[in-house]
Amino acid sequence: MNNPVTFELLHTCKQSGARLGVLHTPHGDIPTPIYMPVGTQATVKAMTPREMEEINAKIILSNTYHLHLRPGEDIVREAGGLLQFMDWHHPVLTDSGGFQVFSLAGLRKITEEGVAFRSHLDGSKQFISPEVSMDIQQALGSDIAMAFDVCSPYPCDHKTAEEAMHRTHRWAERCQKHHTRSDQALFGIVQGAFYEDLRIESAKTLADMDFPGYGIGGLSVGEPKPIMYDMLEKIEPYMPKHKPRYLMGVGTPDCFLEGVLRGIDMFDCVLATRIARNGTVFTRHGRLVVRNAQYARDFEPLEEGCDCYACQHFSRAYIRHLLKADEITGGRLASIHNLRFLIRMMEEIRQAILEDRFLDYRKEFYEKYDMTRNF
Questions:
Q1: Rounded CA gap, 336 and 281, in Å?
Q2: Which of 88, 223, 234, 371 is the most exposed place for a label (fewest CB within 10 A)?
Q3: What does the pLDDT read at residue 361?
Q4: Is 62:349 a contact under the CB 8 Å cutoff?
Q5: 375, burial (CB in 10 Å: exposed 0-12, middle 13-18, buried 19+)
Q6: φ/ψ bin of 124: left (φ > 0), alpha (ψ from -120 to 50), beta (otherwise)
Q7: Pick from 37, 26, 337, 304: which is nearest to 185 by CA?
Q8: Considering only CA atoms, which of 10, 13, 40 is closest in space to residue 23?
Q9: What are the strands of the beta sheet with 115-118, ordered from one edge?
């Protein structure tokens, strides 16, 4: 079967080794490196599909676990699939539900067959196995589906991590056998927690299974960032060169820079819209808490020079007023800015890679960006 999603490596930065590519999918081409906004419930929170197009989003991620519980994949299938259901005309990636089930902790029980858990909505008994995850994602009709995996916590001992990794590999085989949708690609997920030997073994095993792309899971789960970067460095030589690499659940500017430097092509995270709803926005100088009293009479945009709708039309004072008044538009405008900030950053990263100056771009970004404080 010809794969519906293929990766084309266009250029490797001579200065840094960072990768520039394009992911070809049934619903459009995706330039990489790419940030994927998260649309958990078949919507990016506070955003319409038209607004997502206006900020130049190329792909969004939706959540298998949440859509299975509500409204149910059968309803989405009856609507014509996820893209038609939410009127989005570009690619969609669905996660497997593995991380959400992992985060339920005391509400779930993992066995070789799958995961039994109770719904966080109503406490009803639920069960997801590799086969069930494939059935849900095939019904949703995303361009890219993810294999059902076991995510190890941080910290955990070597034995626990090894058992979870081997189960992830067995489940990946079951996902491959059960997945039949010809217009949807299935990506494997590298696990192994924070142990170099396990991460390398997992990368090798999944590479031999010849998935069209690979997620790197089980990172950004509470560990210090240097540990995450170290794991990425250790596995990079073992990741197939001409397949996309997706660092799951990571979405801050510094992580983009360090991930791209270590060969990552795809990122996703809910952080941009989550902090926006609380009144915090990204700027070139760090995070700005626009809810703070000091911005009550600040009539400058959230960020000078930003091309987003919020910055082109409204002031910090106005957006602060909306947030303090609990007006939903305040969170919407902050979300538009944050998403556009990260998407624009990726556009700049791609240009820097093309021009063989990614290390220069990274240095210039860090010279301005203060990661240690909000202001």
A1: 10
A2: 371
A3: 98
A4: no
A5: exposed
A6: beta
A7: 26
A8: 10
A9: 108-110, 115-118, 125-128
Alpha carbon 61 to its chain centroid, in Å, reads 7
Residues tagged active-site: 95, 268
* Cα distances (Å, whole numbers) of residue 180 to 55, 139, 243: 34, 11, 20
Mean predicted lDDT score pLDDT of the chain: 96
| Rounded Cα distance, 115 and 349, in Å | 39
The percent of the chain in helix, strand and coil, each rounded to the nearest 5, is 45, 20, 40
Nearest to 334 by CA among 6, 26, 51: 51
Phi/psi at 19 (5° precision): -105, 140
Which of 52, 130, 139 is closest to 96 using CA atoms?
A: 130
Residue 2's pLDDT band, with cuts at 50, 70 and 90, is confident
**What one-character-per-residue DSSP string does 342-353 give?**
HHHHHHHHHHHH
How many Å apart are CA 45 and CA 270, to the nearest integer?
A: 9
Q: Distance (Å, rounded) from C-alpha 96 to C-alpha 94?
A: 6
Inter-axis angle of helices 358-368 and 328-354, to 10 degrees?
140
Q: Which residue has the tokens 């079951």?
A: 174
Would you say 323 and 290 are in contact if contact means Cβ atoms under 8 Å apart?
yes
Token pair of 311 as six digits: 């910055």
In contact, 214 and 93? CB cutoff 8 Å: no
Both tokens of residue 319?
A: 């957006």
Rounded to whole angstroms, what are the CA distances from 238 to 86, 102, 262?
38, 26, 12
Give the position of tokens 């192994």.
Answer: 192
Least Cα distance to 59 among 133, 3, 143, 138 occurs for 143
Scan for tokens 């792909």, then name that residue.
59
Up-side HSE of residue 74: CA atoms within 13 Å toward CB? 0
Radius of gyration of the chain (CA): 20
For residues 234-245, average pLDDT: 98
Prior bond of 33 cis (ω within 30°):
yes
Share of the chain above pLDDT 70, in %: 99
From residue 10, give the alpha-carbon distance in Å to each of 7, 50, 158, 350: 9, 29, 38, 11
DSSP 374: B
